[in-house]
Amino acid sequence: MLVMRIIAKAKPIRIRIKSGGEEHSSLDSLRQNLCVQDLWSLVKDKRLSRWLMQLGEVDLAHAIDALSVGQLDVSTYFKILFLFLKDELYAHCVMDLYTLFSFWHDCEKRKSKNYDSLRKYLLSKYEGAKFIFKQYPEEASDGEWWTVFCNFENEEDPEFLFEQGKLAFEGFTKSDGSNFDKASISCAKSTSPNCLNHLDRRSSCINGHKSCTLRF
What we know:
Layout: E1 17-19, E2 22-24, H1 27-31, H2 36-44, H3 47-54, H4 58-66, H5 74-84, H6 86-91, H7 97-106, H8 113-123, H9 126-135, H10 142-151, H11 158-170, H12 195-203
Antiparallel strand pairs: 1-2
Helix pairs in contact: 3-4, 8-9, 10-11, 11-12
């Protein structure tokens, strides 16, 4: 008697890709929410390239895999975006991250998730923050600018220091929705009772000129 044996085939495990707080099962979905900061760990451990291979995107998978040996800097960030958005960016001669930000800003893509992710990344880098500060200062709230100015105090940038003092003098709403309280600011370089006096002197700089550089 012939006995038929049925061997169950294991289903391939689908790699999950998460970017910008959302899970993505298609390339089109991922292209709408390319948060490179989220994707970088998936580039490094090759999960992103394996996911692309599962979708049949062999060439794109190999190109992404080639970036895994580097570091996430402005150049690599742009290369990742360019690989996913090559047709659009190439058609508009967009060849660097700053030009891309301007392109998305000018073509009314400011409400897109890709634009917001890029905006946040540039604000986290000194040169990127300077670019947005000079070209598109309205693209960050007062609370966001305060955080940026505090993050880059060690750069001793006169414009940043001036604007930080101006915010402290005039008051503003912080990123968490609360109001700025000068008394809650701790001095980065001193814990003495005179710390707030330094803040007062820095704030008074707005009545002088922009070359005035005062610190906490």
